[in-house]
Amino acid sequence: MKQREDLMMPRPVGDSQSEMNEIVLPNDTNPLGALLGGRLMHWIDLAGAMAAHRHSRNYVVTAAIDHLDFWTPVHVGDLVILRSSVNRVFNTSMEVGVKVWVENYLLDQCQHVSSAYLTFVAVDGGGRHVPVPAVIPETDEQRRRYEDAGRRRETHHDELERRRSSQN
Question: For 150-163, what is each residue's pLDDT tens digit?
Fold first, then answer.
């Protein structure tokens, strides 16, 4: 019992921070040599899951991915850097932010490619939802992301309610 209580102790955002790096190869691109959007979404999902696993210390499944924009192209040979961390926890789910950068190491340039918010749900081996420990934001930026996650969740819930009521 004590061990489960320890697993539910709140954890700082820093404990979930993860970084993943990928080199863009020809198989990752379209005929123009630009990174496929679907491949980047796959990498974003993996980077997000790493942060969710680290925080929850449990299996996690992707429940939702928020709006995704691609601001700059990524090409064969570029290095893609994905940084993720848990923004906020909501009982069995957690919002994870992933920020994507492209580094052209030949030109010594780094550009922001995309940002995404994903919702992961912690599950046990049988797929049942399990509680997730609270997250503790420690910096001003982490506190801003924590508050923003609460507003996004509220907006999503309001939108779901509108859809449900319009179907009846």
Answer: 999 988 777 777 77
